[in-house]
């Protein structure tokens, strides 16, 4: 009887050991899988995509999608206005996308952002205004450029900011983030917020490796909320803080202003397809040999060669959403059948990227001012002349041209 009890006890002990080993192995596999997800994005050639949100009392005041290519340290940043209007299923109504963050939280909000952008955004980082201010002081201030001095009353607060390249402390960066000026140009307030966010990551990089020491990182990480933690969060912050923000040209997603239920909402153009194209094309350039095209803002002149009223203006809005500077719009001297892009700087790789926005394949080069049909502006990089083959969004290929193109593709194969 004693022998049977001893055998039973040994069997139970053996089973317990196996169970403990299995549970431990399962936990380790789960941890490894989670870690590999982050490491895969940080150590490979993939584009690292992060949702960045600065909020104040549960309301997002700055929303950005950051796309970062670690191999070249180049990045693209898309500002998402909180008042972009969508039919939001989780709220069962049409409302601003920012309402999802306030009412449903960051996870549901990230899902809506992914739908809007048409891409997967694996990671998110959020920081409230108070923590942003604390981080600023912790990092010794943030360096930003303010084109002209600010001296205004804003929500019963006197905002006073110097001009030039200045270092702002926590209180001043808070003012910089939240103040609104009636004289601001379209998107200027959003650009300020993006400047502050980029300045934060530059300061983190400037304070490394000390800021990533065990003691200091625990304080740094405590000011962020993310869907990764510990060493994964450290890797994420270390990686994106290395981006070359000096060569980054922030872009702003836009739409048509609509008043819906007494709310001023931005309705995305072409049912959101334009936003998806902006992001997709920019990310494609980021990982290509032509990524230098994102390093500065190119100046465009857009001329309407059709009898469609307002075509140059609406096209200028399209190009501005791609972060181009449209310095002039007008009418061409003569009607034009075929849309053409005039490259005035002799840079064919950039010209192709500019033309691709509207699927234009007709590119001509002239580095000298030409008469009449080539436009009148000499201080522009490219002149775009819209022809009758342009439907308001992109160039429509003629059937015979498309047939020739398809046959050429077959010959190549």
TrEMBL record:
UniProt KW keywords: Membrane, Transmembrane, Transmembrane helix
Domain LytR/CpsA/Psr regulator C-terminal: from-to ranges: 300-390
InterPro entries with a match to the protein in the record: LytR/CpsA/Psr_C, LytR/CpsA/Psr_CW_biosynth, LytR_CpsA_psr
UniProt keyword Transmembrane present: yes
Signal peptide: none
Annotated ranges, domain Cell envelope-related transcriptional attenuator: 69-199
Membrane spanning stretches: 12-31
Keyword Membrane on entry: yes
Family membership noted in the UniProt record: Belongs to the LytR/CpsA/Psr (LCP) family.
Protein name: Cell envelope-related transcriptional attenuator domain-containing protein
